[in-house]
Amino acid sequence: MKYSILLSTIGKRGTLQKSVSNFQSFLTRNDIEFIIATTNPDFKLKGPGKVIRMKKPNTAYFMLRAAKNKRSILLKQATDRMFFMWRKAADTAKGEWMVFVADDTLLSKNFFDRADQMVRSETRVFQPSLLDPQGYIVCGEYFRSYTVSAVRRRLVYEFNLTPDLHGLTRWLDAIRQACDPSNPHEYIFDSESFCWHLGYPIEGGVPPVIAQWDSTSWIASQRVRFGNRRIDLNENFVG
Questions:
Q1: CA 171 → CA 68, 101, 150, 209, distances in Å?
Q2: For residue 145, is pLDDT > 90?
Q3: pTM higher than 0.70, yes or no?
Q4: What domains does the chain contain, in order, with CATH numbers?
C-alpha cells in the first residue's frame, strides 16, 4: 500500500459526508486505503437511501471509546481527540505515506498523481496549496493547522505524533526543521494540487471553527498575498 488516507472525526459535522465522498473517490486506485477513526458510538454515514457501513474495498472503519479506560484524560479536549484518533488510525494503516485529513477538507483530483510525480526517496512531506471555502488560495508556502499533508509513515513514529503536542502545526514544524534546507525535495509544497478547507471563515460561508471573517482577517490578507488566485472548484474536486 502506498497511501493511507486517515480521517479523524466525531461524526457530527455537516461537511463530513462531502469530505468522505471525496476521499472515497480515490479508491479506484489499488494503492490507496481509507481509514476512519471516531470516538462517536453512534457514528454512521448516510448514503443515497442507505447507511454506508465502511465495507468498501480498501476502507476501514473503527470506533474508539474513551470511557472507562486510561486514555480518557487525553480525550477531554477537541485537539486531543483529533490527535488520539489520527495516531490510532496511523497504527492501523499500511501505507508508506500517511495523508492526514479532517472532516471539513477535500483533496483535489490530481493530489495523488502530483505526489506520484514529485516525491523522491528523500521526500518527507508533500503538501498541497490550501484553499478557503470560496476557492481562493490562502496558504501555499508554509504549513497551517488542519492543512492536508502526506507524511512518510516512519516520521509519524520518529517524531511521535501524540496529543501532548497540542497542534499538528507544531508536529509538522518539527519535521520541517529536521529537513535539509539545501534540499528542496525533502519538504514539498505543490502549487498545482489543492486542499479545499470548508471550515475557514468567509463572508456568507459555512459556520467557522476559527475567527470570524472581516476585511482585515488572516484569510483576507492571505488572499491578497497569493494574488487573489481562485481555483475552479467544480473542475478540480469530487465530492
A1: 28, 15, 13, 21
A2: no
A3: yes
A4: 3-236 (3.90.550)
